[in-house]
Write a structure and sequence with these properties.
The protein has helices at about 5-15, 20-25, 30-40, 50-70, 80-85, 105-110, 115-125, 130-140, 145-155, 185-215, and strands spanning about 45-50, 75-80, 95-100, 165-170, 170-175. By secondary structure, the protein is mainly α. It is globular, with a radius of gyration of 18 Å.
Length: about 220
């Protein structure tokens, strides 16, 4: 459960990191990052194409997360080769993990295990039922089949996608969304969605206030 005053304070702190307040808000206008900073999401990861880019992202985001949350943040850079990531990636890349809890020293082993996707789902704080359904659908297709299944569920149930599950092609599925739920009406997923929508509303209001102050 999110305390409204605490949420507003976190958002205010985040916007105060740099003099260019609006740019910061826009760069953080990503559902899963907002859920991590302002909600209960325990961990996130972002991708980088090179080690240099990974270090730059780690430094920048660590400052933002540490200042906004006012608590210790743990980070770890992991090389995601074909051998390490299995079906997660077709080429070498890097993942920068950020967590509110101490990241396991054997993170590379956890990610490299056969049940990599299940392990990551738990690390990211996804509901168990959604992880299970994802694994049933995914097989060797990554997020593509789960996204197709979810979008068809939305159509069949005549409900709007509120989890930001984008579907450009097989290589670009739901990159900025919350996660792919087992159903658009999953109770556990909707609890997270309710929390996120409260966060989103508060961020929009803070952006409006910031823009108004800068216009003076």
């Amino acid at each position: 459960m999110i305390n409204q005053s605490v949420l507003e304070l976190k958002i205010k702190r985040t916007t105060q990191i740099y003099s260019s307040l609006i740019c910061v808000i826009e760069s953080l206008n990503i559902p899963y990052i907002q859920w991590f900073i302002f909600g209960d999401k325990p961990s996130i990861s972002v991708e980088a194409k090179s080690l240099e880019e990974a270090y730059q992202l780690e430094t920048m985001l660590y400052i933002i997360f540490r200042y906004a949350l006012q608590t210790k943040i743990y980070s770890h850079i992991l090389e995601m080769s074909k051998e390490t990531s299995g079906t997660l990636k077709n080429s070498d890349s890097y993942k920068i993990f950020f967590s509110k809890k101490r990241i396991k020293k054997n993170l590379s082993k956890v990610v490299g295990e056969k049940n990599t996707i299940a392990n990551l789902g738990k690390i990211y704080g996804y509901p168990e039922c959604c992880i299970k359904k994802y694994l049933e659908d995914a097989k060797d297709t990554g997020s593509f089949e789960p996204a197709i299944r979810y979008r068809l569920q939305c159509k069949r149930l005549n409900v709007q996608d509120r989890f930001f599950v984008s579907l450009a092609d097989q290589e670009n599925v739901g990159a900025l969304g919350l996660f792919i739920p087992c159903s658009p009406k999953c109770p556990e997923a909707l609890k997270i969605l309710k929390q996120y929508e409260k966060i989103q509303k508060a961020v929009i209001e803070r952006t409006r206030i910031t823009q108004k102050d800068h216009a003076r």
